[in-house]
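Sat 14:20. Reprocessing the chain from the morning session after the first attempt stalled halfway. Input below, unchanged.
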Amino acid sequence: MSTQLIFRDDAYQPSVEAKVIAINDRRGIILDRTVFFATGGGQPGDSGTLQRANAVPTTVATAVYGDDKSEVVHVPGEDEPLPEPGEAVTAAIDWEKRHRHMRIHTALHLLSVVLPYPVTGGQIRADEGRLDFDIDGNVPPRDEIEAHLNELVTADHPVSETWITAEELAASPDLVKTMKVKPPMDSGRVRLVRIGDIDLQPCGGTHVRSTAEIGALALGKIQSKGRQNRRVRIRLARET
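Finished this time. Tokens:
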């Protein structure tokens, strides 16, 4: 069994008609296709609902990959009613939260441009995001980082994707900015996210179509997490 990943082809599609393939032994719901992003790369899985034709909708708390990485498991709330295998449903995400994840995720790619150091970790939330950097020395001034970030946002760089083979990635190791996390592979292929002519790196997450869509950014805390590890937080400065 496998799940067609609609979110990978179109991050802006909020819902899709799908069929229940199976219910696993942990009450996880597996569909033949989904718009729900599955937790990975520091980005949370989507929440939302599975609308049913003649029954109460099922609320989905999050989505994760199954033991078979080709399956997306929709995790319902503890007391949520479950659909039946073979049942047709409409899978619909919480679009507002997803879009905030997309804006934050693309903004973190910009942060890796402003701070061109090896990345040791990261996390995306609807209210903020953060990257950990391996920095030997002083971090640039806060106002300088924030100003540079917002310059890249307002420059309205297009965001697109392309695919290369694992062999091509191995021949271009500088594309990988993360030190501890391997790029996601899909049948021997690697998805690259390109931001204009300023950034190109492997990524399996969802992104906005242009940097201007992110909106103004504000720098949060900069924390020391070790001799060389610096944690830098960013947040959306206003709602759009």
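The domain at 4-93 is CATH 2.40.30.130 (Elongation Factor Tu (Ef-tu); domain 3).
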